[in-house]
Amino acid sequence: MIPGGGQPNMQQLLQQAQKMQQDLARAQQELAATEVDGQAGGGLVRATVTGSGELRGLLIDPKAVDPEDTETLADLIVAAVQAANDNAQQLQQAKLGPLAQGMGGMPGLGF
Predict the structure, then answer these.
(1) Could you give the count of Cα atoms lying within 13 Å of 77 in the half-sphere of its Cβ?
(2) Of 23, 27, 15, which Cα lies nearest the Cα of 106?
(3) C-alpha torsion 10→18→89→46, nearest 10
(4) pLDDT in tens, 6-31
(5) 82 near 10, Cβ under 8 Å?
(6) Is 49 left (phi over 0), alpha (psi -120 to 50) or beta?
(7) What is the pTM assigned to this prediction?
(8) DSSP code of 53?
(9) Per-residue pLDDT tens digits for 81-94
């Protein structure tokens, strides 16, 4: 409900919704173009993902490769990818969080 009991201005609401949609699309494009890293084993394994979570690269230091112990290498890879994904999620919250909060300010839509 709008304070004072008036009816929402539908044209204004539509404009706000369109602007928010454009802002969201722009933020999603920025996330897809931004890369973040994660590492494990003191930097022996590094993973690079986009802000939207797409794995783009994996670097493995030769010191991490022991043919007798592939389990440790696999664990390091998983940890590096997880760290990169955690960083991507933080980036998503930083970029998209303010847009989601803006939805709460749209009177008459019940957000």
Answers:
(1) 12
(2) 15
(3) 180
(4) 677 888 888 888 988 898 888 889 88
(5) no
(6) beta
(7) 0.69
(8) S
(9) 999 999 999 998 88
